[in-house]
Amino acid sequence: MSTANMAAKTLVSLASTEHAGKWKASDHLRYMFMLLSWITLWVLRVLMDHFPASVGPSNPGYVGSFEPLLSSPSSPSYDLSAMDQLVLSQELTDGFNGPPIKALGRALSHIFALLNEIPASSRKYQFAVAMADKIVDENARNGHVELLEINRAALSSAFARTSSLLCRFLQKTEPADESGAWHTRVISAMPLGSYLASYLKGISFCVGAIFPSLTTCGWQSGGRRQTALAGGEEGGERIHEVAAEKLGQELLWITNKLMACGAVDEAVAQWSIASRLASLSLTTSPRVQAFIVKISALLLREVNEAKLEVPRQVKLRLLVLWLPLFCYASNGLAYPILSAYEKDEVERVMDDLISTLPTMDQELILSNWLQDYAISASDWPNLQVPYERWCQASRKLVP
User: Fold this and answer.
1) What is the pLDDT of residue 277?
2) How many CB atoms within 10 Å of residue 66?
């Protein structure tokens, strides 16, 4: 309102100003500018009075968006998609006036959703973890069928949501496309363009080495602009990497809680179709790889020791998807993933699982393993024993 009052006073002062002659052109322009400003401010005031929801984000319902409340400048925003928010809203608001046991399920799902949003550096993060841990443990100790089902549903939903967020952040940490200038990208999109593009890059490199002044005029302009932007993108990639590490740790914790509650079968099914996450995990940081390797090892062990019947397709997909990560994951001293005993146990579990599959499935798994194992720097996992056993079984099938 102070701006509107100032504009009104300026209009009055301009209108009451006496000049010896006619107004100058500058006086007319100044008067028209202030008049338009005054009218615009009053129109905006009327709109704000009659449509207050249009000037700020609405937050209807019980859930809404946690992002404005929980994100901080030092922590990344998890940017839940509209579909994720809709699913979470349905989980928390479905049957709001139902029995108290459903309210307990909504509360547990609410806490798991908050865990994904609260920065790990916040002192409230450990508080939320302790609250979820306490509710899950007390439900399990009670032993009631409905309470156990609440644990199962909330943990399975949290596993799916956290793995989806982890995949999303790993996509953001992928290295930027460094294909060069625009003409290089256009040529690459043509038939046989990859060969022409590589030839063009070689010529550009030679010309740049001989005539450095020419490289500033267009052959490498696109690459130089990307290099200039790399410094600004580095900080964002680092933030996403830290967020992915936090989500990986949460996913490992949720996996352990699922195992303790005997509800790991749904996590196994979800993990067996996480092809995009398996692909992204091959190039992510060693810290994030450590959590994903541990989760994969735990789920493989649970499948091997499970009393229930796991479908053949689930076993096949688990081994085909996650064996490459075991071969390529960094196993240096700085980021130890598994101990020697744990590695031997994982190899034994893989051996047992492979032996339960048909010969055709064994061929697919072991041939892919041999290719990855032969070109990777790691000596683990060594599946030579099941490979030789498959060869012997194949010989017996010869008529």
Assistant:
1) 96
2) 20
What is the Cα–Cα distance from 181 to 183, expressed in whole angstroms? 6
Residue 156 contacts residue 263 (beta carbons within 8 Å)? yes
Alpha-carbon distance of 105 to 314, in angstroms, equals: 29
**Measured between alpha carbons, how far is 241 from 248 in angstroms, rounded to an integer?**
10
* Amino acid at residue number 350: M
Nearest-10 Cα torsion for 279, 281, 282, 288: 180
Q: For the chain, which residues score pLDDT lower than 70?
A: 1-22, 49-99, 174-236, 307-308, 330-336
Nearest-angstrom CA–CA distance, 247 and 288: 9
Q: For residue 34, what pLDDT is reported?
A: 77
- Asked if 191 and 309 count as a contact pair (C-beta separation under 8 A), the reply is no
Q: Among 88, 99, 35, 96, which Cα is nearest to 65's?
A: 88
The C-alpha atoms of residue 212 and residue 204 are separated, in whole angstroms, by 10
- Assess whether the previous peptide bond of 381 is cis (omega < 30° from 0): yes
Segment (H or E) for 374: helix 359-375
Note the pLDDT tens digit of each residue in 22-58.
677 777 777 777 777 778 877 777 777 666 544 443 4
pTM tops 0.90: no
Give the CA-trace dihedral at 148, 153, 159, 165, to 10 degrees: -150
**pLDDT value of position 322:** 96
Residues 6 or more apart in contact with residue 329 via CB below 8 angstroms: 281, 286, 289, 290, 292, 293, 337, 378
Measured distance CA(90)–CA(92) in Å, rounded: 5
**CB 329 within 8 Å of CB 248:** no
Q: Is the dihedral of CA 91, 95, 96, 101 positive or negative?
A: negative
Q: What is the pLDDT of residue 71?
A: 39
Please report the pLDDT score of residue 125 as a whole number. 94
Give the separation between CA 48 and CA 253, rounded to whole angstroms.
47
**Rounded Cα gap, residues 220 and 214, in angstroms:** 9
Closest CA to 71 of 111, 121, 109: 121
> Under 8 Å CB-to-CB from 138, ≥6 apart: which residues?
none
DSSP 23: P
Cis (ω within 30 of 0) for the bond into 99?
no
